[in-house]
């Protein structure tokens, strides 16, 4: 019969699921807002839309939110 695994005292306690979901959404929205703000700023300053950046602005918030969420997994 196996003994239960020892509890690691340095392991972080996972926050409640609702709080983790809310923070994940906020991280994604803040990253999206920063990207859209950068696109608008660069369009106003340079008078040229960086079309290569539009897919990045849409994908990076998802990557940031998933990376934030995986801190507690």
Question: How does the SSE layout of this entry go?
Answer:
Blueprint: H1 17-46, H2 53-69
Helix pairs in contact: 1-2
Structural commentary:
There is one protein chain. With 73 residues, this protein is mainly alpha-helical. The protein has one domain. It has 2 helices and no strands. The model has no long low-confidence stretch (mean pLDDT 87).
Name the descriptors.
0% strand, 73 residues, 2 helices
Fraction in beta strands: under 5%
The major pleated sheet works out as:
none
> Structural class of the secondary elements?
mainly alpha
Tally of structural domains: 1
Q: If you average the pLDDT, what whole number results?
A: 87
Assembly type of the chains comes to single chain
How large is the count of helical segments? 2
Low-confidence stretches: none
Please state the overall shape, judged from the principal axes of the Cα atoms. Answer: elongated
Total count of strands: 0
User: SSE string, helix = H, strand = E?
Assistant: HH
C-alpha-based Rg, rounded: 19 Å
Distance between the termini: 28 Å
Helix fraction, binned, reads 55-70%
């Amino acid at each position: 019969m196996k003994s239960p695994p020892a509890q690691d005292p340095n392991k972080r306690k996972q926050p409640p699921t609702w709080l983790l979901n809310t923070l994940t959404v906020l991280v994604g929205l803040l990253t999206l807002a920063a990207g859209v703000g950068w696109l608008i700023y660069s369009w106003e300053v340079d008078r040229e839309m960086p079309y290569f950046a539009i897919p990045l602005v849409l994908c990076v918030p998802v990557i940031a939110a998933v990376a934030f969420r995986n801190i507690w997994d």
